[in-house]
Amino acid sequence: MTDVKKLVEVINLKKYFPIAGGLFQRTKRAVKAVDGISFDIYEGETLGMVGESGCGKSTAGRAILQLHKPTSGQVLYKGRDLTQLSSAELRAQRPDMQMIFQDPYATLNPRHSVRKIVGEPLVINGKMKKGSLELKDRVAELLELVGMNPAYMKRFPHEFSGGQRQRIGIARVLSLNPKFIVCDEPISALDVSIQAQVVNLMQDLQEQFGMAYLFIAHDLSMVKHISHRIVVMYLGKIMEMTDRNTLFDDPLHPYTQSLNSAVPIPNPEIEITRTRFILEGDPPSPANPPSGCVFHTRCPLVTEECITVEPQFREITPGHFVACHLANTTGGSKIFIPDSKKEPS
Ligand code: SF4
User: Fold this and answer.
1) What are the φ/ψ torsions at residue 341 (nearest 5 degrees)?
2) What are the residue boundaries of the structural domains of the chain, listed by start?
3) Which residue among 1, 28, 192, 244 is buried most deeply as judged by most CB within 10 Å?
4) Cut 0.85: pTM above it
5) Which residues have C-beta atoms less than 6 Å from ligand 1?
6) Taking a C-beta distance cutoff of 8 angstroms, is the pair 279, 295 a contact?
7) What is the dihedral of CA 56, 61, 63, 64, to 10 degrees?
8) From ligand 1's centre to the CA of 314, what distance in Å?
9) Low-confidence spans in the chain with pLDDT less than 50
Protein backbone atom coordinates (compact mmCIF):
# COMPACT_ATOMS: atom_id res chain seq x y z
CA MET A 1 0.00 0.00 0.00
CA THR A 2 3.05 2.28 0.01
CA ASP A 3 2.34 3.61 -3.48
CA VAL A 4 -1.22 4.52 -2.49
CA LYS A 5 -2.10 7.72 -0.63
CA LYS A 6 -3.23 7.77 2.97
CA LEU A 7 -6.85 8.87 3.15
CA VAL A 8 -7.52 8.63 6.88
CA GLU A 9 -5.00 8.72 9.74
CA VAL A 10 -6.24 7.76 13.19
CA ILE A 11 -3.77 8.85 15.86
CA ASN A 12 -4.06 7.71 19.49
CA LEU A 13 -7.86 8.04 19.37
CA LYS A 14 -9.71 7.73 22.66
CA LYS A 15 -13.41 7.79 23.45
CA TYR A 16 -14.37 7.52 27.11
CA PHE A 17 -17.95 7.67 28.35
CA PRO A 18 -18.21 9.04 31.90
CA ILE A 19 -20.14 6.93 34.39
CA ALA A 20 -22.51 8.85 36.59
CA GLY A 21 -21.24 8.43 40.15
CA GLY A 22 -23.20 8.32 43.39
CA LEU A 23 -23.72 11.38 45.57
CA PHE A 24 -20.51 10.90 47.54
CA GLN A 25 -18.42 9.33 44.82
CA ARG A 26 -15.44 11.58 44.25
CA THR A 27 -13.37 9.67 41.70
CA LYS A 28 -14.64 10.10 38.17
CA ARG A 29 -15.00 6.77 36.40
CA ALA A 30 -15.39 6.17 32.70
CA VAL A 31 -16.06 3.39 30.23
CA LYS A 32 -12.95 3.33 28.06
CA ALA A 33 -14.76 2.28 24.89
CA VAL A 34 -11.84 3.24 22.64
CA ASP A 35 -8.49 3.57 24.37
CA GLY A 36 -5.68 4.89 22.23
CA ILE A 37 -5.98 3.32 18.77
CA SER A 38 -3.82 4.33 15.80
CA PHE A 39 -3.91 3.19 12.16
CA ASP A 40 -4.10 4.52 8.61
CA ILE A 41 -6.61 3.80 5.87
CA TYR A 42 -5.45 4.17 2.27
CA GLU A 43 -7.41 5.31 -0.77
CA GLY A 44 -9.40 2.44 -2.26
CA GLU A 45 -8.55 0.12 0.64
CA THR A 46 -10.80 -1.98 2.84
CA LEU A 47 -9.60 -2.13 6.41
CA GLY A 48 -11.49 -4.83 8.32
CA MET A 49 -12.05 -4.26 12.04
CA VAL A 50 -13.06 -7.23 14.21
CA GLY A 51 -13.60 -8.05 17.85
CA GLU A 52 -16.27 -9.38 20.20
CA SER A 53 -19.29 -7.20 20.85
CA GLY A 54 -18.48 -4.40 23.30
CA CYS A 55 -14.82 -4.17 22.23
CA GLY A 56 -15.31 -0.59 20.99
CA LYS A 57 -15.26 -1.11 17.24
CA SER A 58 -18.59 0.64 16.50
CA THR A 59 -17.64 3.50 18.85
CA ALA A 60 -14.32 3.75 16.99
CA GLY A 61 -16.17 4.01 13.66
CA ARG A 62 -18.42 6.74 14.99
CA ALA A 63 -15.56 8.63 16.64
CA ILE A 64 -13.61 8.57 13.36
CA LEU A 65 -16.59 10.16 11.57
CA GLN A 66 -17.02 12.58 14.50
CA LEU A 67 -20.53 11.24 15.21
CA HIS A 68 -19.13 10.76 18.73
CA LYS A 69 -16.82 13.57 19.81
CA PRO A 70 -13.47 11.90 20.64
CA THR A 71 -12.12 12.30 24.19
CA SER A 72 -8.65 12.86 22.73
CA GLY A 73 -6.52 11.99 19.72
CA GLN A 74 -6.63 13.01 16.09
CA VAL A 75 -8.43 11.87 12.94
CA LEU A 76 -6.84 13.27 9.80
CA TYR A 77 -8.87 13.09 6.59
CA LYS A 78 -6.69 14.01 3.61
CA GLY A 79 -4.33 15.58 6.17
CA ARG A 80 -7.03 17.75 7.81
CA ASP A 81 -7.76 17.10 11.49
CA LEU A 82 -11.50 16.44 11.77
CA THR A 83 -11.43 16.84 15.54
CA GLN A 84 -10.55 20.53 15.12
CA LEU A 85 -13.24 21.44 12.59
CA SER A 86 -16.21 23.65 13.40
CA SER A 87 -19.71 22.20 12.94
CA ALA A 88 -20.07 24.06 9.63
CA GLU A 89 -16.69 22.79 8.37
CA LEU A 90 -17.59 19.27 9.42
CA ARG A 91 -20.96 19.52 7.64
CA ALA A 92 -19.19 20.54 4.46
CA GLN A 93 -16.91 17.50 4.79
CA ARG A 94 -19.76 15.03 5.49
CA PRO A 95 -20.66 14.05 1.89
CA ASP A 96 -17.14 12.59 1.52
CA MET A 97 -17.47 10.39 4.62
CA GLN A 98 -20.53 8.22 5.07
CA MET A 99 -21.74 5.34 7.22
CA ILE A 100 -23.63 2.13 6.42
CA PHE A 101 -25.47 0.73 9.43
CA GLN A 102 -26.15 -2.80 10.63
CA ASP A 103 -29.91 -2.55 10.61
CA PRO A 104 -31.06 -0.84 7.44
CA TYR A 105 -34.70 -0.99 8.55
CA ALA A 106 -33.95 1.21 11.56
CA THR A 107 -32.25 3.82 9.39
CA LEU A 108 -34.72 3.97 6.48
CA ASN A 109 -37.75 6.11 7.22
CA PRO A 110 -40.70 3.69 6.89
CA ARG A 111 -43.01 6.49 5.68
CA HIS A 112 -40.73 7.56 2.86
CA SER A 113 -40.65 6.00 -0.59
CA VAL A 114 -37.37 4.57 -1.91
CA ARG A 115 -37.24 7.53 -4.29
CA LYS A 116 -37.29 9.97 -1.38
CA ILE A 117 -34.89 7.93 0.77
CA VAL A 118 -32.23 7.59 -1.92
CA GLY A 119 -32.64 11.11 -3.33
CA GLU A 120 -32.88 12.98 -0.02
CA PRO A 121 -29.11 13.50 0.57
CA LEU A 122 -28.84 15.13 -2.86
CA VAL A 123 -31.66 17.56 -2.02
CA ILE A 124 -30.41 18.31 1.51
CA ASN A 125 -26.91 19.01 0.20
CA GLY A 126 -28.26 21.28 -2.54
CA LYS A 127 -26.98 19.07 -5.37
CA MET A 128 -30.39 18.59 -7.05
CA LYS A 129 -33.88 20.04 -6.82
CA LYS A 130 -36.70 18.15 -5.11
CA GLY A 131 -39.12 16.67 -7.66
CA SER A 132 -36.79 17.30 -10.62
CA LEU A 133 -36.40 14.87 -13.48
CA GLU A 134 -32.65 14.98 -12.94
CA LEU A 135 -33.13 13.72 -9.36
CA LYS A 136 -35.46 10.94 -10.50
CA ASP A 137 -32.93 9.83 -13.11
CA ARG A 138 -30.11 9.84 -10.54
CA VAL A 139 -32.19 7.73 -8.11
CA ALA A 140 -32.91 5.26 -10.91
CA GLU A 141 -29.20 5.13 -11.73
CA LEU A 142 -28.26 4.54 -8.07
CA LEU A 143 -30.81 1.73 -7.73
CA GLU A 144 -29.39 0.06 -10.83
CA LEU A 145 -25.90 0.40 -9.37
CA VAL A 146 -26.92 -1.62 -6.32
CA GLY A 147 -28.68 -4.25 -8.42
CA MET A 148 -32.28 -3.10 -7.89
CA ASN A 149 -35.02 -2.45 -10.40
CA PRO A 150 -35.57 1.34 -10.72
CA ALA A 151 -39.31 0.60 -10.88
CA TYR A 152 -39.08 -0.09 -7.13
CA MET A 153 -38.56 3.59 -6.37
CA LYS A 154 -42.27 4.09 -5.61
CA ARG A 155 -42.26 1.38 -2.95
CA PHE A 156 -41.64 1.64 0.80
CA PRO A 157 -39.01 -0.06 3.03
CA HIS A 158 -41.40 -2.65 4.51
CA GLU A 159 -41.99 -4.09 1.03
CA PHE A 160 -38.38 -5.33 0.80
CA SER A 161 -36.25 -8.12 2.29
CA GLY A 162 -33.32 -7.37 4.63
CA GLY A 163 -30.80 -7.71 1.81
CA GLN A 164 -32.79 -5.38 -0.46
CA ARG A 165 -33.11 -2.83 2.34
CA GLN A 166 -29.35 -2.90 2.82
CA ARG A 167 -28.99 -2.27 -0.93
CA ILE A 168 -31.32 0.74 -0.62
CA GLY A 169 -29.20 2.02 2.28
CA ILE A 170 -26.06 1.60 0.17
CA ALA A 171 -27.69 3.47 -2.76
CA ARG A 172 -28.50 6.37 -0.42
CA VAL A 173 -24.91 6.47 0.85
CA LEU A 174 -23.54 6.34 -2.71
CA SER A 175 -25.67 9.30 -3.82
CA LEU A 176 -23.05 11.80 -2.63
CA ASN A 177 -20.04 9.97 -4.13
CA PRO A 178 -18.26 9.37 -0.79
CA LYS A 179 -14.54 8.63 -0.67
CA PHE A 180 -14.65 6.91 2.71
CA ILE A 181 -17.40 4.72 4.17
CA VAL A 182 -17.57 3.26 7.67
CA CYS A 183 -19.54 0.02 7.30
CA ASP A 184 -20.80 -0.84 10.79
CA GLU A 185 -21.60 -4.57 10.72
CA PRO A 186 -23.49 -4.18 7.42
CA ILE A 187 -24.04 -7.92 6.94
CA SER A 188 -24.45 -9.17 10.52
CA ALA A 189 -28.26 -8.90 10.46
CA LEU A 190 -28.61 -10.63 7.07
CA ASP A 191 -29.14 -14.32 6.24
CA VAL A 192 -25.86 -16.10 5.54
CA SER A 193 -26.99 -16.69 1.94
CA ILE A 194 -27.45 -12.93 1.42
CA GLN A 195 -24.25 -11.84 3.20
CA ALA A 196 -21.97 -12.88 0.33
CA GLN A 197 -24.16 -11.00 -2.19
CA VAL A 198 -23.89 -7.75 -0.23
CA VAL A 199 -20.12 -8.21 0.24
CA ASN A 200 -19.72 -8.84 -3.50
CA LEU A 201 -21.78 -5.73 -4.27
CA MET A 202 -19.61 -3.63 -1.99
CA GLN A 203 -16.45 -4.99 -3.60
CA ASP A 204 -17.81 -4.26 -7.10
CA LEU A 205 -18.70 -0.70 -6.09
CA GLN A 206 -15.22 -0.19 -4.61
CA GLU A 207 -13.62 -1.38 -7.86
CA GLN A 208 -15.86 0.98 -9.82
CA PHE A 209 -15.59 4.10 -7.64
CA GLY A 210 -12.40 3.57 -5.60
CA MET A 211 -13.80 4.48 -2.17
CA ALA A 212 -12.15 3.22 1.04
CA TYR A 213 -14.05 1.15 3.60
CA LEU A 214 -13.62 0.63 7.31
CA PHE A 215 -15.53 -2.66 7.49
CA ILE A 216 -16.58 -3.55 11.03
CA ALA A 217 -17.66 -7.09 11.96
CA HIS A 218 -17.71 -9.32 15.02
CA ASP A 219 -16.00 -12.30 13.49
CA LEU A 220 -13.16 -12.87 11.12
CA SER A 221 -15.12 -14.89 8.58
CA MET A 222 -17.18 -11.78 7.75
CA VAL A 223 -14.16 -9.61 6.91
CA LYS A 224 -12.04 -12.34 5.35
CA HIS A 225 -13.01 -11.83 1.72
CA ILE A 226 -13.43 -8.08 1.56
CA SER A 227 -10.45 -6.77 3.60
CA HIS A 228 -6.98 -5.86 2.37
CA ARG A 229 -5.75 -5.44 5.96
CA ILE A 230 -7.40 -6.28 9.28
CA VAL A 231 -7.34 -4.69 12.74
CA VAL A 232 -8.24 -6.91 15.72
CA MET A 233 -9.67 -5.06 18.71
CA TYR A 234 -10.13 -6.14 22.33
CA LEU A 235 -11.43 -3.97 25.14
CA GLY A 236 -10.92 -0.68 23.30
CA LYS A 237 -7.37 -1.44 22.13
CA ILE A 238 -5.79 -2.88 19.01
CA MET A 239 -4.25 -6.31 19.58
CA GLU A 240 -2.99 -6.99 16.07
CA MET A 241 -2.95 -5.36 12.64
CA THR A 242 -1.62 -6.78 9.40
CA ASP A 243 -2.61 -7.76 5.86
CA ARG A 244 -5.39 -10.28 5.43
CA ASN A 245 -3.26 -13.26 4.39
CA THR A 246 -0.76 -12.85 7.24
CA LEU A 247 -3.59 -12.51 9.75
CA PHE A 248 -5.11 -15.82 8.67
CA ASP A 249 -1.88 -17.74 7.97
CA ASP A 250 0.36 -16.46 10.75
CA PRO A 251 -1.57 -14.66 13.52
CA LEU A 252 0.75 -13.69 16.37
CA HIS A 253 -1.60 -12.43 19.06
CA PRO A 254 -3.23 -15.19 21.15
CA TYR A 255 -6.60 -13.41 20.84
CA THR A 256 -6.38 -13.37 17.03
CA GLN A 257 -5.38 -17.03 17.12
CA SER A 258 -8.54 -17.84 19.08
CA LEU A 259 -10.75 -15.86 16.67
CA ASN A 260 -9.01 -17.51 13.75
CA SER A 261 -9.53 -21.01 15.08
CA ALA A 262 -13.30 -20.34 15.10
CA VAL A 263 -13.41 -19.58 11.34
CA PRO A 264 -14.73 -22.67 9.52
CA ILE A 265 -12.42 -24.19 6.88
CA PRO A 266 -14.27 -25.33 3.73
CA ASN A 267 -12.13 -28.52 3.46
CA PRO A 268 -13.86 -31.11 5.75
CA GLU A 269 -10.66 -33.21 6.18
CA ILE A 270 -8.72 -30.27 7.61
CA GLU A 271 -11.76 -28.95 9.49
CA ILE A 272 -12.29 -32.20 11.42
CA THR A 273 -8.65 -32.66 12.47
CA ARG A 274 -7.51 -29.14 13.28
CA THR A 275 -6.98 -27.84 16.79
CA ARG A 276 -9.41 -25.21 18.03
CA PHE A 277 -8.81 -22.74 20.78
CA ILE A 278 -12.08 -21.60 22.27
CA LEU A 279 -11.87 -18.55 24.54
CA GLU A 280 -13.57 -18.98 27.87
CA GLY A 281 -15.59 -16.34 29.67
CA ASP A 282 -16.60 -12.90 28.56
CA PRO A 283 -14.35 -9.88 28.09
CA PRO A 284 -13.90 -7.83 31.28
CA SER A 285 -15.79 -4.55 31.61
CA PRO A 286 -14.22 -1.58 29.81
CA ALA A 287 -15.19 0.44 32.90
CA ASN A 288 -12.70 -1.62 34.89
CA PRO A 289 -10.11 -3.03 32.45
CA PRO A 290 -7.43 -5.45 33.72
CA SER A 291 -3.95 -4.11 34.55
CA GLY A 292 -1.03 -4.75 32.22
CA CYS A 293 -2.18 -6.59 29.08
CA VAL A 294 -5.97 -6.20 28.86
CA PHE A 295 -6.19 -9.76 27.50
CA HIS A 296 -4.30 -11.36 30.40
CA THR A 297 -7.42 -12.63 32.23
CA ARG A 298 -8.24 -14.90 29.28
CA CYS A 299 -4.83 -15.62 27.80
CA PRO A 300 -3.42 -19.18 28.10
CA LEU A 301 0.16 -17.84 27.82
CA VAL A 302 -0.12 -15.21 30.58
CA THR A 303 3.09 -14.47 32.55
CA GLU A 304 3.81 -12.29 35.60
CA GLU A 305 4.93 -9.48 33.30
CA CYS A 306 1.59 -9.56 31.42
CA ILE A 307 -0.30 -8.78 34.64
CA THR A 308 1.64 -5.62 35.43
CA VAL A 309 3.16 -4.27 32.22
CA GLU A 310 1.09 -3.18 29.23
CA PRO A 311 2.62 -4.56 26.02
CA GLN A 312 3.69 -2.06 23.36
CA PHE A 313 1.95 -2.19 19.99
CA ARG A 314 5.09 -3.21 18.05
CA GLU A 315 5.93 -3.84 14.40
CA ILE A 316 7.22 -7.42 14.46
CA THR A 317 7.73 -7.75 10.70
CA PRO A 318 7.09 -4.99 8.13
CA GLY A 319 3.41 -4.03 8.33
CA HIS A 320 2.62 -6.61 11.05
CA PHE A 321 1.87 -4.93 14.40
CA VAL A 322 1.13 -6.87 17.61
CA ALA A 323 0.51 -5.90 21.24
CA CYS A 324 1.93 -8.94 23.07
CA HIS A 325 5.11 -9.34 25.14
CA LEU A 326 5.78 -12.77 23.66
CA ALA A 327 5.26 -11.93 19.99
CA ASN A 328 8.37 -12.47 17.89
CA THR A 329 9.31 -13.92 14.53
CA THR A 330 9.90 -17.40 15.97
CA GLY A 331 6.36 -18.00 17.22
CA GLY A 332 6.82 -17.10 20.92
CA SER A 333 3.17 -16.04 21.21
CA LYS A 334 1.69 -19.08 19.47
CA ILE A 335 -0.92 -20.95 21.49
CA PHE A 336 -0.20 -24.00 19.39
CA ILE A 337 2.07 -24.51 16.41
CA PRO A 338 0.42 -26.46 13.58
CA ASP A 339 2.17 -29.81 12.89
CA SER A 340 3.11 -28.60 9.42
CA LYS A 341 5.13 -25.73 10.93
CA LYS A 342 6.82 -27.63 13.77
CA GLU A 343 10.62 -28.10 13.60
CA PRO A 344 11.57 -31.81 13.18
CA SER A 345 12.97 -33.06 16.52
FE1 SF4 B 1 -1.11 -13.09 26.55
FE2 SF4 B 1 0.81 -11.80 27.84
FE3 SF4 B 1 0.68 -11.65 25.21
FE4 SF4 B 1 -1.16 -10.45 26.72
S5 SF4 B 1 1.03 -9.96 26.62
S6 SF4 B 1 -1.53 -11.65 24.90
S7 SF4 B 1 -1.37 -11.90 28.40
S8 SF4 B 1 1.09 -13.49 26.41
Assistant:
1) -105, 0
2) 251-345
3) 244
4) yes
5) 253-254, 293, 295-296, 299, 301-303, 306, 311, 324-326, 333
6) no
7) 140
8) 13
9) 2, 339-345
